[in-house]
Every structure is written in C-alpha cells, then in structure tokens.
User: What shape does this take?
Amino acid sequence: MLLAYAFALENPKIAATAIEATEFIELARRHHVMGVPRTIVNGAAAVDGVMRESMWVDLILEAAAPPA
Assistant: This one.
C-alpha cells in the first residue's frame, strides 16, 4: 500500500485509498476480497498479494491505457 501512496504523491492523476475489509464488508464482497492485500485499480484490475514496484507500474499503465 505504501507504493500506491507514493505513486499518488508523485502524480496528481493517481489516487490511493486503503480500506479495512472487515469494516467495509459490502465493498469487500463487491471486489471479492478473500485475503489481503488485494489491489484494485479503476474498479476492475485486481491483484492479490504484495507487488514489486515494477508490477505496480505495469498495472497502472495498463489501467491508464485507452480502450482498444
């Protein structure tokens, strides 16, 4: 999660929010959270587990790409 915040601090087009799945049960269900961390980008792309910085970059670039 710290990397998400770091990206958000560096780029005003990126926002990062962390939630506690046990406090926001409906949101956790909607995004099929079964374990943590679960990273969701633009409400669609999801990755479970800890990611290296290069994986974050790839995920953000993929989410920012215009639809084909």
About this structure: The CA atoms of residues 38 and 48 lie 4 Å apart. Strands lie at 38-41, 45-48. The first strand starts at residue 38 and ends at 41. The two ends are 29 Å apart (CA to CA).
